[in-house]
Write a structure and sequence with these properties.
By secondary structure, this protein is an alpha+beta fold. It folds into three domains: 3-59 and 67-161, DNA methylase specificity domains (Adenine-n6-DNA-methyltransferase TaqI, Chain A, domain 2, Alpha-Beta Complex); 163-203 and 366-416; 213-365, Adenine-n6-DNA-methyltransferase TaqI, Chain A, domain 2. It has helices spanning 118-124, 128-137, 150-155, 163-206, 245-250, 267-273, 323-330, 333-342, 353-357, 367-409, and strands at residues 3-5, 14-16, 20-23, 28-31, 43-46, 50-53, 75-77, 82-84, 94-96, 101-103, 108-112, 157-160, 213-217, 222-226, 238-243, 253-254, 261-265, 280-283, 285-286, 295-298, 305-307, 311-316, 349-350, 360-364. The protein has a five-stranded mixed β-sheet with strand order 14-22-18-20-16. A four-stranded antiparallel β-sheet has the order 4-11-8-9, with helices on one face. It has a three-stranded mixed β-sheet with strand order 17-15-21. Helix 4 packs antiparallel against helix 10 (367-409). The N and C termini lie close together (6 Å).
Length: 416
Amino acid sequence: MEITANKYSAWIGDFPDHWEALRIKNLFQEMDSRSETGSEELLSVSHYTGVTLKRESLENEDDHLTNASSLVGYKLVQQGDLVINIMLAWNGSLGISPHNGMTSPAYCVYRIKGNNNPEYFGYLFTTNMFKAEFRRHSTGIIDSRLRLYSDKFFSIFTVVPPKNEQDEIVQYLKEQEEKINLFIKKKQRFIELLMEQRQSKIDEAVEGSDKNWLNKKLKYIAEIKFSNVNKHTIEAEIPVRLCNYVDVYKNDYITNNLEFMNATATETEIEKFTVQKGDVIITKDSEEATDIAVPTFVKEDLENVVCGYHLALIRANENEILSEYLFRKFQSSELKAYFAIEATGVTRVGLSMGEITGAKISYPNSTEEQKQIVSHIKAETATIDTAIAKAEREIELIREYKEAMIAEAVMGKRIN
C-alpha cells in the first residue's frame, strides 16, 4: 500500500494515495431529535470509555442518574451515532454510540452519511492528531471554556478510506483492543488485591487495643485549618506554589519533586496555609463519599508551597502524637468509614470542621511505640508498593501502545 503526502491539509500527514480527504460536513449530518418523555436510556460520554449507559457507571442502585428535574428535551441518539461533548472534544470526549438512548442537550449528535463505517471515524477522531485539530477549531480562551461548534467541526478535513478498508481497520482494532483491555483488567484486579493486602497491613498496625493506648478527638492532638486559597493570578499578590486537590489525592507523600501549580496568595494566606514538613493534608470534600479525607504526608521541607482549596491542613502536636503515625491512622479503614458516613451533600459531599475535629484517634501513649508502628508499616508495605507501582506502569505503557496502534491503523500504516 503506497503512502503519499496529502494535498488537502498538512496537519493530517501521510495516508494511502487512493484514500480521499473530505471535510467532515460531507460525512456526517447533525441530528437534533428530542425526547418527548425523557424515558429513553441516558447515555454518558467520556474520553476514557466513549459512549456508555449512564446507569452502568453508578456505584449504588440508589444513586441518581442525573440532577436534572426532567429529561424531556434531551437529544435522542441512535446506535451508530457520533456523540460529542463539545466542551471537551479537545481531550477526546466523544464516541460512536453502541446504544439507542438520549444525551445532554449540551452535546452534539451526528449521523454518518453514505456508505461509511462510523466506528472507523470514532477511532480516528480520538487520536492526538484530531484532538489537537479539535482544540484549534474550538472557540474560547481557556480549556474550561472551549467549545467545538458544529460549523467548525464540519469545516475540518478528514481522511476517508474505501468502505472495505474502514471495515478492516475497525475489525483489526477491535481484536487488538479486546486483548489489551483483558490485560488491563487483569492488572487492575491484581492492583486491587495488592491494595487490599496493603490496607490490611495498615489496619493491623494502627488498631491497637492495649490499655496503654489513648483515644482522643483530633482537635485535642492537632491543629486543623480549612484552606481557602484558590488559583489566584492577581499581580499585586505574592507568587506561590499551590498544593492542590489532585496532588493530595494521587500521592501518599508530598515532596519538592511534584509539579505544583503556580498561583498567588496574600501575606495572610501564606502565613496561615504554608505547608511544613510533617503536615498531614486531607481532602475535605469530593463528588464521592469514598474520596473524602484521603490523606497525604508532607515528607520534606518545601519551598514556597501553600495548601490549596478543598483541603484541610492538619498539624500534629508532636509531643502527643507523631505526625507520620497520624497520617497512617488517616489511612485506616476505621477512619475512612467514619468520614464516609459523616460526609454530607447532594452533588458534592463534604466534611465540616466539627466532623473532622471530632474524629476519634487511637494511639499508643508512647511516641517510641508510635515510631515502631510507623517503621513496621513501612517495612510491611514496601514490597507491596513496589509491585503496585510496577503494575500501574505496565498499564500506562500498554495504554500508550494502544494509542499509537490506533493512530497508525486509522492512517493505513498497519493494515496491508
